[in-house]
């Protein structure tokens, strides 16, 4: 129950101006740190596919929180011993953090719904709150970005957390622009 309350509180805070603490972050170092954290999260073959070179202005702690949620989900939905890929890339003005697995994948008709609060595809599982992916989406949105999921050939899911390299400033009529 306390986990549920904590996650609901985090979602409520994600709409507040002080939710993020953006600072310049070395993307290669951040991506490598994400890979190390993922390896300590669960015993799986983690493959660092690519680490973006450059700097982005973002909240590295929140990005880490979001990517670790994606990593936990990938591990929960793939058989033991199945490799999970993690990486980052710069695409135009955005940084993309990718977690890809070889699990059962997500049906196309469910791909948007899974980011809703309390959404669950596997109702047999009882170990989560159904808020993890909505928290990832909230972190992406707070950065001015988004999260998406696609399928992959041979089965599995590819999650992409995409955030601007430099967070857009808030509208001029709002207080405390970042």
């Amino acid at each position: 129950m306390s986990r549920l309350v904590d996650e609901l509180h985090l979602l409520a805070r994600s709409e507040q101006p002080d939710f993020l603490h953006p600072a310049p972050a070395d993307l290669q170092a951040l991506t490598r740190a994400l890979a190390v954290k993922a390896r300590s999260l669960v015993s799986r073959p983690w493959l660092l596919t690519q680490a973006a070179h450059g700097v982005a202005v973002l909240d590295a702690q929140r990005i880490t929180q979001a990517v670790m949620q994606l990593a936990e989900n990938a591990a929960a939905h793939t058989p033991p011993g199945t490799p999970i890929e993690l990486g980052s890339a710069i695409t135009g003005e955005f940084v993309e953090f990718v977690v890809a697995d070889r699990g059962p994948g997500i049906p196309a008709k469910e791909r948007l719904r899974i980011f809703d609060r309390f959404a669950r595809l596997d109702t047999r599982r009882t170990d989560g709150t159904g808020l993890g992916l909505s928290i990832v989406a909230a972190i992406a949105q707070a950065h001015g970005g988004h999260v998406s999921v696609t399928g992959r050939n041979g089965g599995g899911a590819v999650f992409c957390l995409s955030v601007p390299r430099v967070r857009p400033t808030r509208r001029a009529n709002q207080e405390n622009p970042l």
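The beta strands are 23-26, 46-50, 55-58, 84-91, 94-100, 146-151, 157-164. The first strand starts at residue 23 and ends at 26.
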